[in-house]
């Protein structure tokens, strides 16, 4: 299907030792070093007509599911155009393997950023605003992200947050029924309780955003790393973390209220939409835009 959309002819070549996957040669593109990798894909620094871009390829020997996932990611990303979301520039397929070309983000993942330093409170709130903006836009285009986590957000050198990796995204109207053992797609440590029960709603992205904001404000994940899967699932389903305000009493009450509402266990107890959460936050924007 993708092939018919794309006339580009592609060649494989063995080059480089950073991954076991042969690098793809795409006419017009030059592949350079690896920028990062996630559970399913490797992303390379690349160039096209002298301009930088990033090319996402499936890891070696992708199964039909992985290729279908990238096909879906391309389809959904084509609907999105927002400064807070990494833009899709091109895509294609070779020997049954799909690739996509994106804008290259000049910066680091929020995960690396959180590992290297503690964010200031105004920084954390500004990133929260940018995340909710991107989310609100995606939802307005009927796209739920479904895998929000610090690895799927990048902090640009200019301080802007960019959302990426729509590999597990879905249209809000798409009725996906999933089983716990094989295909609850996403990352349990950042997954809303209802997603673990196979219920799909855009409000799940609010919950994941709440966990990210919690981590940005407190420096600690609400669901500690290293827990086994059943402990993670128990935490998401049953345990509410101590509110950021109890860990830091100097935190204004409205910040605590925002985070804990995003983290409500029942989707109906969260904000009515990501936009409503954004409106709430913006009601206090003088608090965090005036501070360094
Ligand atoms: N457009 C981009 N610019 C720069 N780095 C990127 C870009 N897209 C992804 N990356 C890096 O590659 C990693 C993996 O990409 P991602 O799309 O999340 O793959 P996966 O679907 O396997 O999780 C990201 O965590 C990030 O470090
Ligand atoms: Mg990812």
Overview of the molecule:
This protein has 2 domains: 2-103, Phosphorylase Kinase, domain 1 (2-Layer Sandwich), CATH 3.30.200; 107-287, Transferase(Phosphotransferase), domain 1, CATH 1.10.510.10. With 292 residues, it is of the alpha+beta class. It is built from 11 helices and 12 strands. The protein binds adenosine-5'-diphosphate and magnesium ion.
Write a concise synopsis of the structure shown.
The protein has 292 residues and is of the alpha+beta class. It has helices at 2-5, 64-77, 110-116, 121-140, 193-196, 203-218, 229-238, 244-247, 253-262, 274-282, 285-289, and strands spanning 11-13, 23-25, 29-37, 41-48, 51-58, 88-94, 97-102, 107-109, 143-144, 153-156, 161-163, 170-171. Helix 4 (121-140) packs antiparallel against helix 6 (203-218), helix 4 runs antiparallel to helix 10 (274-282) and helix 6 packs across helix 9.
Q: What's the count of strands?
A: 12
CATH class of the largest domain: Mainly Alpha
Give the second-level CATH assignment, the architecture of the largest domain. Orthogonal Bundle
Give me the CATH superfamily of the largest domain: Transferase(Phosphotransferase) domain 1
Number of helical elements = 11
Q: How are strands sequenced across the largest beta sheet?
A: 3-4-5-7-6
Largest β-sheet summary: 5 strands, antiparallel
Bin the helical content: 25-40%
Q: Which structural class fits the helix and strand makeup?
A: alpha+beta
Q: How much is the average pLDDT?
A: 87
Bound compounds, please?
adenosine-5'-diphosphate, magnesium ion
